[in-house]
Amino acid sequence: LWYRGARADYDAWADAGATGWGYDDLLPYFRRSETRPGGDPAYRGLHGPVRVAPLSRVHPIATALLDAAAARGLPVLDDANGPS
Q1: Would the CA dihedral through 39, 33, 7, 65 be positive or negative?
Q2: Is residue 40 part of a domain?
Q3: Is residue 1's pLDDT more than 80?
Q4: CATH at residue 32
Q5: Most-buried pick from 23, 67, 70, 77 (CB within 10 A)?
Q6: What are residue 51's DSSP bridge partners?
Q7: pLDDT in tens, 11-66
Q8: Number of domains in the chain
């Protein structure tokens, strides 16, 4: 499982005085750490040491949960570490 923290959390650190710890400051390091074929290269790395891929199998309960969220109008992201 590979997941970054939420953009708002990193930006809150920067707003609290942690210079250099905002999301945009850290994004280049996130990108350098991973290889994610097929990901948006603005947000995903192509040549890092950690190979990241979507799940090869998604549990039916997870699919049902995402379908229910979409039916309620909630956004369903293809890549949780993408632009949103």
Answers
A1: positive
A2: yes
A3: no
A4: 1.10.1220.110
A5: 23
A6: 35
A7: 999 999 999 999 999 999 999 999 999 889 999 999 999 999 988 899 999 999 99
A8: 1
